[in-house]
Structure to design on (365 residues):
């Protein structure tokens, strides 16, 4: 089977790797370079933590296990530690109870245990609640992308960069990919993994990148602050970024994030000001850079996956949670291209009433 995959981000690379495992002849078409899109601005937190939809929890929980099975050197299975105080405890307790009832790995820990796990934690007032999610993890997205692309190439996939796709057409036999230079590529199946550009190629409604569909990420200078896992609070989420640097984000600041506007000094200063509330050893820290991270956001849900034509020659997958889902999508999407329908992807078809998530904001990305 000849398959064209559009997009060399983490989802496109995973799907290409999954297809080559099944013997497909794969060509990946990328307008810029691998990882140039949403993958380059991912927080890299692997979790199924903030999901109130049963089908989406099933999907993301399986994806967490898929990361553990893949065993990439980009994967850091050190867990996630969360603390909450005051009114934030109510939401945390509700979520812990919901997840525990679905056999998600979660345990309440004491303050003493929390500081054993992360000696650099700032001491919190009495009454602070700590929860450990031991199966959660973080990844370094560029390294995971490299791992998946290497597997795809080893399976015979060709990666073509600088190739801009402008249209995808389902044909009587197979599908045609129309390029910006007027060229046409043919394939038995085309899989669009174009991320936030999906709506330019296919009739799938996407949120326009801007305030409300983007977030901020800030990278610190190298610090003598020991940290081994994702730590999240209602003030700040932080994880190791390598070389002693930390990656910071705060959901409450994301409402004003707009990729059309520079983030400005204020955002970095605000994130840095919150850091001592979470970690010690951050004196003298400065922000090396702040990025605006546009999400690949389908208008009707966090993920859409399935054929968009009756002939089943054009398949689309687009998700806000690409880093979390990628290893699982490698298997599920490739299976569907080869005719094995996935029950887990069933609720997320193009044109279906894609499920919403009323109980919180997932920030796995």
């Amino acid at each position: 089977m000849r398959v064209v995959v559009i997009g060399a981000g983490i989802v496109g690379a995973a799907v290409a790797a999954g297809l080559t495992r099944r013997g497909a002849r794969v060509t990946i078409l990328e307008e810029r370079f691998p990882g140039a899109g949403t993958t380059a601005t991912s927080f890299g937190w692997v979790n199924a933590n903030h999901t109130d939809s049963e089908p989406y929890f099933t999907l993301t929980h399986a994806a967490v296990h898929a990361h553990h099975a893949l065993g990439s050197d980009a994967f850091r299975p050190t867990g996630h530690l969360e603390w909450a105080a005051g009114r934030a405890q109510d939401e945390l307790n509700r979520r812990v109870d919901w997840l525990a009832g679905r056999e998600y790995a979660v345990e309440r820990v004491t303050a003493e245990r929390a500081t054993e796990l992360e000696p650099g934690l700032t001491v919190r007032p009495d009454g602070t609640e700590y929860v450990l999610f031991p199966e959660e993890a973080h990844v370094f997205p560029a390294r995971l992308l490299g791992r998946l692309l290497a597997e795809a190439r080893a399976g015979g996939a060709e990666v073509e960069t600088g190739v801009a796709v402008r249209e995808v057409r389902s044909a009587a036999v197979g599908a045609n990919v129309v390029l910006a230079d007027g060229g046409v590529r043919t394939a038995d199946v085309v899989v669009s993994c174009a991320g936030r550009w999906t709506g330019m190629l296919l009739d799938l409604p996407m949120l326009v990148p801007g305030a409300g569909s983007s977030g901020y990420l800030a990278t610190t200078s190298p610090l003598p602050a020991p940290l081994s896992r994702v730590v999240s609070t209602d003030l700040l989420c932080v994880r190791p970024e390598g070389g002693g640097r930390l990656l910071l984000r705060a959901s409450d600041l994301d409402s004003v994030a707009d990729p059309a506007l520079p983030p400005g000094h204020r955002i970095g200063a605000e994130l840095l000001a919150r850091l001592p509330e979470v970690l010690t050893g951050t004196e003298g820290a400065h922000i090396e850079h702040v990025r605006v991270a546009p999400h690949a956001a389908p208008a009707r849900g966090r993920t859409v996956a399935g054929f968009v034509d009756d002939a089943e020659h054009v398949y689309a997958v687009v998700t806000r949670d690409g880093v979390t889902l990628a290893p699982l999508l490698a298997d599920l999407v490739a299976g569907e291209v080869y005719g094995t329908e996935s029950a887990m992807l069933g609720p997320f078809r193009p044109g279906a009433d894609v499920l919403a998530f009323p109980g919180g904001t997932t920030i796995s990305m």
The chain is about 25% helix and 25% strand. Residues 54-70 form the longest helix (17 residues). The chain has a mean pLDDT of 93. The chain has two domains: 2-45+141-207+298-348, 77-135+210-294.
